[in-house]
């Protein structure tokens, strides 16, 4: 297998083409890196070669590092990772110095990169080591260093080179936020050098005309000063002070990668380039050896990707959706219509009244207008997308729909009526999906003549922003309905999880106990500031009280009443209800009423926690320790996830982890609830649960599965991860 090939032409240009066999996207493996190194050596040694162009044989340049490389390096422990990374640094440094005289910096061979499309991670770090980067004018191409998004940072010189190229301040969005740009924006930002119609031709022309001085990177030239100032200069100093505060504010100290990245940038800026690379490698090693980065890569990259590619799709023929009927043009229906039309699917958007249907369509118009004002869409695109949406009250328009998504009021009778009306029109083989958030799918399926073609497709609000879609199998749902739902989710580019039918399915089932635990602590007199901060310091994006304000307190009341009606005497949450019902009675319904657990100003901006809480629920004299509050909030969610697994609602822990992060923002640094439990270890987790149970009650009772795993020394991924992946 050769990943890189080289052709030398009559003008003395060696074209090195990266084209990993059998893959649609290039990724760098250690073998690939060795091949590239060999070809560079050969070209540098060959007198007939005047310059080198590195390009790709595929539509894109490269997607990043082959993740097996990191796994392989880790087998050698920290030293293995460090040595592996230093090997990459040597390769890229060889490209950068290109055989030039170390003293005079003369006599090197020009090396340019030509990117036909996307260049991510090492796919940009490699070009950054070349002397000039040309990219095709391909607006779909994404260029950048997204490593931070999966809990690591650019460790093949990208951090050091970009900081020296742009300065710490200008490099920050690319390094700290993983910002990606199209080629034109990447050029404007200084990430790449030129956008060309034919980047290989342009790169070729450049290497043939390049002078010695064109090959010397600023940091290898005499008198180099970092743009924006080094850390010990007043301007640079301010950048680092600000960046440290910003990183800590955003990450709450729970993401090791952001902090390590900043250290690598700061320390690297104080020393010569080659030493800075070594420092980068040390911090990178530290991050790679941290369990958080492994868990994040596993959940947010490997498993998320696997689920999107259909890891749990039943074996059924292609079920691509061509025409979708959406029943109910309210908040959810309108959002589902938008994402479907954006994906090129024809949409019939039905509501009881024509004006409601039109309002639902206007939602898409609004979003497209906003996109146009931000230059993310054009008038033509808007016309095309809106042209796909028919807003009507006429069920006859559903003829020919191969999928229905029902999003009418949360009322079984209304849902039953629209199910029957739609089924009278749609083809026999169409799939009918409901977007209910609380009603059992198997019960709603009773209104269908074809229950094996009836399924839950549960979106989260706002539909256009939320990445997760929960697919729920009713008792009689057949495999083709699951395949259809998965193919639909793939078309609209979201991430699916497939779960079985049970109260609140998976995500809401876990998020409700989190909110409830926070509210319960308010009733106990725990300082609400402590509750909120404890959650954030565990990496939860919103504290439980802010979350209930956002989703609305009356919704909490509605859910509480319905749950109590269903559970009767077994209902465990009276203490929670007392707080929620009291707030609702005061008209404090959360953000939407500008009053809730928090106070809001007239413009709707959230202020401090509402002082009235203290008067009603006086602070307990003795406040719990921070860890106690954190354990209560984390185990409230996590134990529910374990119970969902025990009960067979979840069939795959990968879905449990990915769904938790994308669905309700479960501490992403942890990789999800199962990854978090694995980090703690089952024995320690069980001990904490026993302890919480003794003090706070049976809702923290150690699940039998966890206890058994503790006894055997099992981890969730050892026990359930590999089995599923092999299946
Ligand atoms: P909504 O009240 O905003 O919209 C419901 C729409 O259905 C309204 O426009 C209404 O006119 C229409 N409708 C009612 N009866 C109809 C009928 N007989 N024929 C045609 N249209 C009819 O509600 P929503 O928030 O969009 O929720 C819709 C569904 O999605 C509910 O089942 C809800 O549980 C579920 N859901 C909501 C959320 C959320 O965050 N709001 C999230 C996931 C799922």
From TrEMBL:
UniProt keyword terms in alphabetical order? Fatty acid metabolism, Lipid degradation, Lipid metabolism, Lyase, Multifunctional enzyme, Oxidoreductase
Q: Which residues form the 3-hydroxyacyl-CoA dehydrogenase C-terminal domain?
A: 505-600
What superkingdom heads the lineage?
Bacteria
**Is this entry keyworded Lyase?**
yes
Q: In which pathway does it act?
A: Lipid metabolism; fatty acid beta-oxidation
The 3-hydroxyacyl-CoA dehydrogenase NAD binding domain sits at 323-501
Which InterPro entries does the annotation name? Answer: 3-OHacyl-CoA_DH_NAD-bd (IPR006176), 3HC_DH_C (IPR006108), Enoyl-CoA_hydra/iso (IPR001753), FA_oxidation_alpha_subunit (IPR050136)
The UniProt record lists the keyword Oxidoreductase: yes
* PANTHER family documented for this protein: TRIFUNCTIONAL ENZYME SUBUNIT ALPHA (PTHR43612), TRIFUNCTIONAL ENZYME SUBUNIT ALPHA, MITOCHONDRIAL (PTHR43612:SF3)
- What is the similarity comment for this entry? In the central section; belongs to the 3-hydroxyacyl-CoA dehydrogenase family.
The protein here is known as Enoyl-CoA hydratase/isomerase family protein
Q: What is the lineage of its organism?
A: Bacteria, Pseudomonadati, Pseudomonadota, Alphaproteobacteria, Rhodobacterales
